[in-house]
């Protein structure tokens, strides 16, 4: 670590997640001495403006981590598809560099952390592999809302998440836009990212169901179970793709012990700096660009079975960037870098 701060590498720095993450770190109080920004050699990105500084983007030739990253980085953040992360991470680990994995591709080697929900780094496990994972966007939002309710006796939560096209990156938002234009012009829409189409429609299952639940749904349930200490069967998740460009929406039915209801839930959520109670409810579009989760429509179940609520957040700014910055800040403050 340089005397003036950290040498931070972001691999996938020009993608939707990586680009937002770099700017979020630049706005934070994390001391950055030098940026090591890396992107695919196939992409034509030579320089990126970060806080007024013109930063060179390093290519990843032959799908290998640039040597300067392995020699100098204090922290490497992977904002890449899972297959890329798993391919490149071993070299970084061999160099003894701390890793933050955005999306949980390395969950078999590191623990999940959602400081936004009060779940910090498992330092004992971190010292084994030097890997910490920021989970999927639906997990970050659901955990941020549900973790405070564990003090109220949360025993079960049923979650339906409405995912925007942008949850798969820029390619998703761009294809949705082209599909809309094509359908308006009576042309065949592109269907590479969304083979079944998405414009003016809803895709009711993200992935292929096996025994009625998709792998993505099971993954979110498992991530939440690890964070909330509640068995996965008590955290059923339905993931649905909707024709919006950005902004994650979520309906939650939380079951609590005793006589606790909507009033107690509002009280538990009202004082949290990462959440804002909204009435009328914030829309997904309005949430884009904000680094907090918005919660509203908190109401008692008519049959007395807990509380229903609605939550929205920016799938990039809150569910990815804000949580990764919080993880990096904990690493720095606790001398883990």
Q: How would you describe what is shown here?
A:
It is built from ten helices and 14 strands. Helix 5 runs parallel beside helix 7 (215-228) and helix 5 (137-146) crosses helix 10 (317-333). The mean pLDDT is 93. Helices cover 32% and strands 25% of the residues. The longest helix is centred in the last third of the chain and has 17 residues, at 317-333. By secondary structure, the protein is of the alpha/beta class. The chain is globular and about 60 Å long. The strands form two sheets. It has an eight-stranded mixed beta sheet, sandwiched between helices. The relative contact order is 0.15.
Can I get a quick summary?
This protein has 337 residues and is α/β, with parallel strands linked by helices.
Strand order of the largest sheet: 3-4-2-1-5-6-8-7
By helix and strand content, what is the structural category? alpha/beta
* Number of E-state strands: 14
Strand content: 15-25%
Looking at the chains present, what oligomeric state does this protein adopt? single chain
Mean pLDDT: 93
H and E order: EHEEEHEHEEHEHEHHEEHEHEEH
Q: Helical element count?
A: 10
